[in-house]
Amino acid sequence: MPPPPDEPQPYDELPSYDKPPYDEPVPHDAPPPPDEPAPYDAPPPSTSVLRTGGSGPAAPPAARGGRDGAVRGNPLSAPAPRSDDVDVFAAHDPVRAVAGDAMSDVLVLGGGAAGLSLVHRLVAGGAGGVTLVEAPDGPGRPGERTWCYWDRGGGELDEAVRASWGRLRVHGADGGAVVVRPAPFTYRMIRSSALERLVHGRLVRAPGGRLLRATADAVRATAHGAEVDCTAAGGRRITLRARHLFDSRPLPALPPARTLLLQHFRGWFVRTDTDRFDPDVADLMDFRVPQPRHGLAFGYVLPLAPDRALVEYTEFSRTPLTTPAYDAALAHYSRRVLGLGAFSVEAAEQGVIPMTDARFPRRHGPTVRIGTAGGATRPATGYTFAAVQRQSRAIAAALHDGRRAGGTVAAPRPYRRRTLAMDAVLLRALDTGRVDGPTFFTDLFRNVPPLRLLRFLDGVATPWEEWCVGLRCPVGPMLRTALELPFLPRRPLAPRAEESRR
Ligand SMILES: Cc1cc2nc3c(=O)[nH]c(=O)nc-3n(C[C@H](O)[C@H](O)[C@H](O)COP(=O)(O)OP(=O)(O)OC[C@H]3O[C@@H](n4cnc5c(N)ncnc54)[C@H](O)[C@@H]3O)c2cc1C
Question: What is the pLDDT of residue 407?
Answer without folding.
Answer: 59
